[in-house]
Structures are given as C-alpha cells and as structure tokens.
Specification:
With about 170 residues, the protein is mainly alpha-helical. It contains 6 helices and no strands. The N terminus and C terminus are likely disordered.
C-alpha cells in the first residue's frame, strides 16, 4: 500500500498542472501580436499628445498602425489557409481582423490629428482616405475621417448619413 502511495504522490502535482490553463505568451499586453498591446500604444500616444509631445505621439501611433497591419496580414493568411477545412478558424481570424482594422482606423485618425496640429494637413489626407476606404462612410470612423477631409478642404460635398443622394446633385 505504501508503494502505491509513493508512486501516486509524484503524479498528483502533474494532474493539478494539467487541469490549469497554461498562460499564453502572446496574450500578454507586452506582446506585439496582441490587439490589447496596440490599444496600449494608442493610450500612450494619447497621453503624449495631451501633454504636447507630438513627436512621441506620432511615434506611438505609427507603431500601433504597423502592429495592426502585421496582425491583419497574419489573420488573413490564417483565415485563408483554413477556409474550407474548418470554418471556426476563419471565423475567428476574420473577427480578429475586423477588430484590428477598427484599431488601425483609430490609430490613423489620431495620427491625422497630430499632423493637423502640426499644420501638415497634406500628410493627414492619405490616412483619412484610408479610414474612409476601409471603414466606409457608413461607419462612425469613416464618417469622422470624411468630416476631417472636409475640414481641411480636401472634400467639399457633405455626407449626410441616411439621406439618399439624388441624381443631378
């Protein structure tokens, strides 16, 4: 009986370990492959912009945009690789891709605001156009980007969400 207990004792901690969910390294906020880390960059950029450190804000917003672009590519690649094999994985990757796209649009809007504050609206235009393109004017980020384009004089026709455009106008 004692021999059985001695053999079972070393197995007990392993059984407890197997039941615990292992920590996933890329889920930590310090990982560049994590949308939460990108959002942290945006928050840090916001703090830098609020304190007037526009160079630091620009750097942080650029880092957030770059991270979002990398994540978008990875999510698309994985989604495509599993399409037709296991529908759950493309659904998950597509959802993560949408979240990354929204986060990138927010980074673009913030970076465009920095350029506007630095009297460089011409540098803000491509960022704002990208937001309108990827988010569409039906989305709040897309509408905000288009409104910014109007404010800096790149566009002049107001977009009124929900109002149908009439021919000849």
């Amino acid at each position: 009986m004692l021999a059985v207990l001695a053999l079972a004792a070393p197995l007990a901690p392993a059984a407890v370990h197997a039941q615990q969910e292992p920590q996933k390294a890329l889920e930590s906020s310090g990982s560049p492959f994590n949308l939460e880390a990108v959002r942290t960059l945006l928050v840090r950029g916001d703090a830098a912009a609020a304190s007037g450190n526009l160079a630091e804000a620009r750097k942080l917003y650029d880092q957030a945009r770059d991270a979002c672009r990398r994540l978008l590519g990875f999510y698309r690649d994985l989604s495509g690789s599993f399409r037709g094999l296991d529908a759950r994985i493309p659904r998950e990757m597509d959802q993560k891709g949408r979240e990354a796209l929204e986060t990138m649009a927010q980074a673009n809007l913030r970076l465009a605001a920095v350029f506007r504050r630095q009297n460089q609206p011409e540098v803000a235009v491509p960022l704002l156009v990208e937001v309108v393109k990827v988010m569409t004017p039906a989305n709040p980020e897309g509408r905000k980007a288009y409104q910014n384009l109007m404010e800096i004089g790149f566009a002049s026709t107001p977009y009124t969400a929900g109002a149908a455009a009439t021919p000849g106008n």
